Amino acid sequence: MNYFSSNFKLGILGGGQLGKMLLNDTRKFDIYTCVLDSSNEAPCKIASNEFHLGDLMDYDAVYNFGKQVDVLTIEIENVNVDALEALEKEGIKVYPASKTLRTIQNKARQKLFYKDNNLPTSPFTRFAYTSEVKEAIDHGSLTVPFVWKSAQFGYDGQGVKIVKSVSDLEGLPNVECIAEELVPFKNELAVIVARTPSGESKNFPVVEMEFHPEANQVEYVICPARIPEDVAQKAIDVALKTSEAFNHVGLLAVEMFQTHNDEILINEVAPRPHNSGHQSIEASYTSQFEQHLRAILDLPLGRTDSKVGGVMVNLVGAEGYSGNVIYENISTIMGLDGVTPHIYGKKQTRPFRKMGHVTIVDQDINQARKIAEEVKSTIKVISE
Amino acid sequence: MNYFSSNFKLGILGGGQLGKMLLNDTRKFDIYTCVLDSSNEAPCKIASNEFHLGDLMDYDAVYNFGKQVDVLTIEIENVNVDALEALEKEGIKVYPASKTLRTIQNKARQKLFYKDNNLPTSPFTRFAYTSEVKEAIDHGSLTVPFVWKSAQFGYDGQGVKIVKSVSDLEGLPNVECIAEELVPFKNELAVIVARTPSGESKNFPVVEMEFHPEANQVEYVICPARIPEDVAQKAIDVALKTSEAFNHVGLLAVEMFQTHNDEILINEVAPRPHNSGHQSIEASYTSQFEQHLRAILDLPLGRTDSKVGGVMVNLVGAEGYSGNVIYENISTIMGLDGVTPHIYGKKQTRPFRKMGHVTIVDQDINQARKIAEEVKSTIKVISE
Which residues are recorded as binding ATP (chains A, B) (predicted)? Predict the structure, then answer.
């Protein structure tokens, strides 16, 4: 198939910031793009060739959209998987595959997948309802502390709770869930692996993630991670093995814990471009978005090593502000060395909403990290 | 003015490939953009917020378009300058200024500007008509060889002729022109300078240009130029002085000759992002397009040094092919290390038409140069 000069159409489910950055790299290759999103204010509305309004969880919306394209990809996991399966049967190339999405969408199934494939992850117990978790504690088959996670639709800061006593279970929805052993860890790491339909596979360097203590959102991503080489290699091996186990096509971001005795445990995966790879736009030979395109179009994968060290700072809405967004002091941070803001184009801010990110690059990763702190303390995402 | 969250509008005159790459960086900052171009198939049609159809040389088209924006810039010099002057008087920020464009649009006036500002350029004589050039040769006041250049609308490969005997003048249009001394040179160099309304100014490294012998179009751009440091510094000094002499705002690309005795002579300038800066997208801390935006929006300028060495190869239509374009072997070159194609999105190819470019980056500039040759000999821009 000739992506560069024919009637080829690439479909993207979701029109948020990841889609927006993916679209940016499709422009480089002049690939014809169609985007489906439920919001008329989606960041992807411009820069796509066709923007379609529709609910990503609706079978008909996804099916009818998918029938118009040659290759279909996602920028968000919450899409109608039955529609994807039907499209696959009719010959549309769907990356990631419906089967993979079905596994990943459900955290219990995702954990079982790791177990079945001998991939390291923390011990867990599966429950049909949260009420059963309470019973298990009462019967002594489960002990606090542990991490409660709803099986469906669990995202950063939602559907996850650290349970230290039975009373912490109060107020949680009575849904399918898992209780995960609370493993103390030194670092949260991530590795993004790209894999093509032909089976070519390449990994980006291991990155280190620092989380905001309250919002449970990534605050800094540091590339490369400042960890010993053998630990990094272990994390890379796990990530490559995970991508292969899924027989994955496209990007797979594998989030992992580095325990106190340097064990690597998979936390969760995202089958798409990921927040932990944004610094690749400025720091790597190939950005994660270009790499995702190369992978799903079965083109040769690009170099994944870094030109320079990179640190990524998430720009989230400041507490206490809701409404039309203002990026206070943005021109000040643009005066710092190697700083590039990425503004996602959401009109409204609210506390902890992801509004953009800032990349800081430097030959010296410690210098980049230092400037990142200055960026973090200077720019404020507030409202008018 | 708050570019990032208000009703601010940036206007771009011209919707070609330079505009397209400029638009790409406006997405990063979520800047609202309006583009004016005469072709409904312009590469800028997508990725701009508003696309307006209109003739760039038409007073009313440019004036009415400009009245709707806050800052107006160009991606091509051939625009109606009277309209720009009227807009400036009404408070629209026009970068580059109408005065600068008027000087640059006419090659005779451009050369006089260098002379008046003690900027080094080759000796020349100005003529009202080409017929007068012939008379000057007949009278012995001008001797062959020299370079004939039409004063107006001279571009790469057009409006320029090396005159070795009187007969070479035959067929040339009888227009205002200059006869420029033919200076033998070792290298063609270029330096891009960015300057803000506040007067902050930064230069990118000196690049070396290799021209296609027949088409008179740049074939390779090599960054950094492989020349002695003192020669590079001389070229940078000339470029900075030129930008200041114009009191320029935005990018100014200064093309220069390095003579056999290492003199630097200005060939011509372009007051906008330029072909000699495309490798900056992958090789520099700040791309020339981001830097142009920073400059015209009076934001702090970004770092202009390089992360890695970069070579740029122009993708021009192969001889003998016209029609719907095909990029033969594009996936082969994407398998080479550090190679990124940029396809401009023009549907039709014709011999020597600029259809895209390819950037090759590597820590070792000689390695990048080697891969660039492989790229050049592998990819072919042909028609269906």
Answer: 107, 149, 180-183, 188, 267-268
State yes or no: ipTM above 0.95.
no
My answer on whether B345 and B264 are in the same domain is yes
**Which residues in chain B have their CB less than 8 angstroms from residue A307's CB?**
307-308, 361
CB contact under 8 A, B299 and A334: yes
Structural domain for A47, as ranges: 10-94
Residue A112 lies in a domain: no
Q: How many domains does chain A have?
A: 3
Is there a contact between A302 and B361 if contact means CB atoms under 8 Å apart?
A: no
Helices (H), chain B: 17-29, 59-66, 81-89, 98-105, 107-116, 130-138, 229-245, 280-283, 288-296, 330-333, 365-378
Find which of B2, B3, B30 to mutate to test the A interface (most A CBs within 10 Å of its CB).
B30
pLDDT tens-digit readout, B219-271: 899 999 999 999 999 999 999 999 999 999 999 999 999 999 999 999 999 99
User: Which candidate in A3, A28, A293 is best for mutational testing of the B interface (most B CBs within 10 A)?
Assistant: A28
B18 and B75 part of one domain: yes
Contacts of B158 (CB under 8 A, 6+ apart): none
Phi/psi-derived region of residue B78, left when phi > 0, alpha when psi is between -120 and 50, beta in every other case: beta
> Of all residues in chain A, what percent carry a pLDDT higher than 70?
96
A77 inside domain: yes
B199 touches chain A (CB under 8 A): no
Per-residue pLDDT tens over the stretch A17-43? 999 999 999 999 999 999 999 999 999
Does a structural domain hold residue A116? no
The answer to the question of residue B239 being in a domain is: yes
